[in-house]
Each structure stands twice: as structure tokens, then as C-alpha cells.
Amino acid sequence: MLEKTYTVPTMADMAASGEEPEILFWVGCAGSFDDRYKRVTIAFVRILNHVGIKFAVLGPEEACTGDPARRAGNEFLFQMQAMANIQVLNGYNVKKIVTACPHCFNTLKNEYPELGGTYEVIHHSQFLQGLIDEGRVKVEGGQSFKGRKITFHDSCYLGRANKVYEAPREVLAALDADLVEMKRVRANGLCCGAGGGQYFKEPEPGTKDVNVERVEEALATGADTIAVACPFCMTMMSDGVKNKNREDSVRVYDVSELIAQGQGL
Amino acid sequence: MEIVQQILFTAALVATAWFITGRVRLIAKAIRLGRAENRFDHADERLKTMLLVAFGQKKMFTNLLVGTMHFVIYAGFIIINIEILEIILDGLLGTHRLFAPLITAVYPVLIDVFEVLAFGVLAVCVVFLCRRFIARVSRLQASRHRELQGWPVSDATIILTAEILLMIAFLTWNASDSVLRDRGVGHYGELQGIVPDFLVSQYLKPLFTGFSDTALVAYERAAWWLHILGILAFAVYVTYSKHLHIALGFPNVYFSDLQPKGEMQNMPEITKEVQLALGLPVTTDPDGGQVNDNGEQPAEIGRFGAKDVEDLKWINLMNAYSCTECGRCTAACPANITGKKLSPRKIMMDTRDRLEDIQKGWKANGPDYKDDKSLLGDYITAEELNACTTCQACVNACPININPLDIILQLRRYRVMEESQAPASWNAMFSNIENNMAPWKFSPSDRFNWADQVNS
């Protein structure tokens, strides 16, 4: 078999050679630095390579969107980040952004326009759905999911915040697995507990951790795979599974990782 | 005798109108304490939302059974009010069933519809009391939710009991009236052959067969008066109660947020400072931002974020007055579910309590009086604010589009930007973003290192 080589062009490379990518892949801080979520970034990049999408990343020129600062109440810091990012994005004449982080997605899509940054912003689950619908991504050649039970955890900033409920589910449907739903889903989905800056601090005193409450619900479906579409949900759900001592039998994956597995990438 | 009743009735009507007008003006003044924000845009979308969510009660039907029961009370409230028109005219003019001879064909049908609804309202109110006190639905229990302790539970019980009594008065009034008509007593007999028995109250007639004519007239008058005075008193009571949603629910939905739930409102006054700091040209805010209805910028920039009710937007304050304390927000809140102090319902109740306390201050110490308390600190604590995951489940759950999250975030902004009171780990996160361009302490130059692993 031919050894595949995956490439990750940067906007700077593209600009230097006078090219413009079809999409900018906004990796996000978790996708760049979090060991677990880097694997999601890599899975998505492999899919993009495999399909032959002309994409680029900002690489070292990317910076936090400012979302956690804004939700924690630090509007100054948020706007400093936003303005700097918008200067970079507008400098490269970026039109279309795809990101694997619902928080980046929400901020870039809904909050940057008022500060002068207007782009078409798509979550990677929506982008994958488009590729599957067009027949450009076929789940074949890799691991089979037939008969496996998968449950999907809605991310607040993808679901309630932006009403993206179907795209990740349709991506999972392409796996031909058995999609089982939790009790609280879609608009009623229960948060993983990370949003609003909670990820960056200890929870306030209570009787239980939110991620444990959510993981119990996920485990109750009998699924062996919890699919997520957000880096923070990824950590919270993985920690919850560990808390329940189920990490041997239950795995947490991002939707793009499952597609990449199905394609043997 | 008739004329005395007419005078008393007119007096009761005038007194009610006087009280309600006073209350409406006070509440309007309280809501206007909030910051200006234009919510008169996108009239089509707002109207559509109001028709679906307020008139159609779309979000109540998330739970079909409860939604249907609530719809019965709502429909009963609106439709039975048509009958109030006749009752008021009868009271003013000293007539009895004024419309009956005028619209003989439809009159019995109308009253039949009112009676069926009245019976429905009565039954649902009984079920709702059972849900509170026998089935003990969790979100309605003061033992589980501290914000309900005391007055809120009494308020709910008073409303349901009052509605039950009003419906009993209406139905037994019709029944006693039917018996008087059958017996041909006085003017009651004049409607013999014109007005038949009604659909529900006919079954209550046996209750009155043992009554003498005098006792029956006394009961009929008492029931009539109890019903109408009850409604007038209830109308005044509503302005003090969580039940105010029956009026404010409609404008509250009309003026509710139209943007995606995840979008936090921009602070144009900060945009300007940031642009100056970064050496960028200062742009005027494209969406108007804080520009008020007349297109004027506010004279002075207030504080960053909200410390008290006057720092919030007027719609936040209308939200507080519209809240029915049903607790769907709190039941959906991940923080509350897992035992944290935060309850979105309490945020709304605290905001209203704060407004009511300011009103009390006006009454006692003059119209411009302001005490030294504030919403943040004296009503809502930092622990509650810090527990929020901004998941918007509360916003989604509210049947009338109230947004507790918006208040939480504005209070957080004050805590962080004016008081520098963020939790220590948030300050660390801020400084990481500022210095390392990521919320964690990684070198920005390592940001692209992941790419080295794509082929391994």
C-alpha cells in the first residue's frame, strides 16, 4: 500500500505562493495544545487531505478567540483578542472558516461581525456532513461500526446556541452504527459542565459534578462510544467516564475521529 | 335597592381602575429604570414570535399534558372574560343578563362554552394544587428551592384557590339563576323561554331545590357579587403577584431576544477603548449598540457591567416582572441540578424583589430615593454567578423567553471589570490569554507543533 503523506499548509505559505485556500481551518487552543484534542485536529486534517480540500491553518498566527474571557466577564480581554484575530483574518482575506470547537465557532460566527470580522463560519460536523452528502467522504476501508452503540452528547454552543443538532448526528449515521439517544438531548441537552469559564476553575460547592451527572446519563444508554463535537465536552466526558471507572469499556471520541477510523485514516 | 347595588358596583369598578392605574404606572417607572435598548426593530419577526410563543404557547407544549392543562386556564381566562363585559354592564345599568334578549340564538351557546371552560379551569386548578402539594413536583417545592420559601408558595396557593372559588361562584350563580327562572321569581322569570338551562350548571340545580325563593335570590346575588368583586380584587392582586405574567407575558415575548442564544451582547464603549489601545481607527458601532431609540449616544458611560437594576437593560427588568416562578429554568440548570447555589429563577425573583424594594423606598422617602443596597451582593451572590456554565438551558426552558443568563453575565462583567473580583484561577486564565494567546500556559510559538504529528 502506498504510504500517504498528510500536509498542513499555513495561510502564510499560501499567501507567499499567491494562493487562496477554499477554507481556513481554525484549530483553536485546545486543538493546538490539548494532547487529547490534538488527535481530533489530526483526524480532521487527515480527512481534509484525503478528500483533497484546499485548506490552510493560521499556525502560530492563531490566537484564542477570547470566548472564555468574555464569558467570565472580561470584555476588555475578549475584545483585544477579537480585534487582533480579525486583523489577521482580514489581512488574509479569509472568507470561510471551519472549526472543530463550538466555542470558537459561536464566537467567530456571532460575535466577531460586530467588531468588523464577518466570515462564513462552519462547525466541522457541518462540514463533514456536507462532504458525506456530496459523496466525497465515504466511510469505508477502516474500522466497522456496524452493531456498535454510539450516543451523541450535544455541545451547548453548537446546539442550543446555534441550533446545530442534526449535522453531527447525520455524520454519525454514516458510520452505520446504532445511534442511541440520551434522555436530555438537542435543545434540552445537559451541559458537560465546562462552559462559561467553568473549565478553567474548580466548580462551586455542590452535591455532584455536572460531568458525572451527564456521563451517568450517557452510560445509561448502554453505548460503548460517547461521541462529542467539542474539546471541552471531550475532557469533561472523558473525566466523567474515568470517575465511573468505565474507561476500559466506554470511549469518548469526536465525530471526526470516528469518521477517520471508519476510513482507516 | 337596585340603585344601591348600581352605586356600589360603580364605586368598586372605579376603585379597581384607580388601583390598577397606580400599580401600572409604578411598574412602568420601575422597568424604565433599566438602560435604553431598542427592541422595536424586526417587527415581523417579533410579532410572529409573540403569536407562536405567547398566544400559541408553543413552548408550554414541551410537556403535552401540562401544556394542555395550562392552555385550558389560558383559554378560559381569555374567553370567560367576554362574559365579564355583560356582568359589568349589568352591574352598571342594573339589568339582568342584558345580552340574552338581544342575541337569543347565540346567547345559550356562548354561556355553554363559558361554563365548559369554567369547569375546565376549575378542574385544572385542582390538578395544579395536587401537583404542588400531593405529587410534589420538584421544581415547585420550597424545601428543595430556597427562593420559594414564604411568600412565593402562598402566592401560588392564593392564585389557584382564588381561581377555583371564582369558577364555583360563576357556575353556581348560573345554577341558582336557572332555578329562579324556572320558578318565575320576579325579573328572573322574564327570561323564561328565552334562556334555557346551561350545559354544566344544570347539574348543579339540585343543590338549590331546597332553597326558599328569598334564600335563592340571596344566594344568586351573593354569587354574582362574589364573582365580579373577586375578579376585580384578583386584577389588583395580580399586579403584586407572580401572576402578572397573564398581562406582561405578551409584551415580554414580543420584546424578547432575537439573536442566537450563544451570542453575548457587545459593549461598544469597550470597543472604542480597545481600538484606541491597539492604535486602530475608532469605528462607529454598526448595529447601534447602546445608541437609544432617538439615535443618541448616552451622555455618559456608566459602569462596566451591572451592579444594580439600573445598570441592566429595561427588558431584563420586564423579564423580572413577567416571571411566573414556574422553575422550568432552574429544573434545566446543570448547576442547580448538581446542588450549586445558582438558580436562574432566583436571579429573576431577586431582580424583581430589588425593584419592589426600590419602589417601597420611593413611597416612604420620595420619588427619587435610592437606598445603599445593590442587586449584586445584597440579593445575588458571587457564588451563584460563578456557578453558571452559560449553557443557555434556562433561556431555552422559559415558556415566555425570559433570559436569566443575560443578567448573570452583566453582573459577572461588573465583578471582573469594576471590582477585579474574578476567582484566582480565572485571573490566571486571563493572564495566559493575554501573554500566551491561549487559556493555558503554553508558548505561543509551540502552537503549531501538533502538525509534526499528522504523519505519525
TrEMBL record, chain A:
GO terms for cellular component: plasma membrane. The keyword ATP-binding does not apply. GO terms for molecular function: 4 iron, 4 sulfur cluster binding; metal ion binding; oxidoreductase activity. InterPro entries: Cys_rich_dom, HdrC_iron-sulfur_subunit. Keywords: 4Fe-4S, Iron, Iron-sulfur, Metal-binding, Oxidoreductase. It comes from the Bacteria. The keyword 4Fe-4S applies. Residues 24-109, 150-237 form the Cysteine-rich domain. This is Cysteine-rich domain-containing protein. It comes from Spirosoma oryzae. The lineage of its organism: Bacteria, Pseudomonadati, Bacteroidota, Cytophagia, Cytophagales.
Automatic annotation (TrEMBL), chain B:
The keyword Iron-sulfur applies. GO terms for cellular component: plasma membrane. Residues 314-345, 378-408 form the 4Fe-4S ferredoxin-type domain. GO terms for molecular function: 4 iron, 4 sulfur cluster binding; metal ion binding; oxidoreductase activity. It comes from the Bacteria. Keywords: 4Fe-4S, Iron, Iron-sulfur, Membrane, Metal-binding, Oxidoreductase, Transmembrane, Transmembrane helix. The chain crosses the membrane at residues 6-26, 64-85, 105-130, 151-173, 222-240. This is 4Fe-4S dicluster protein.
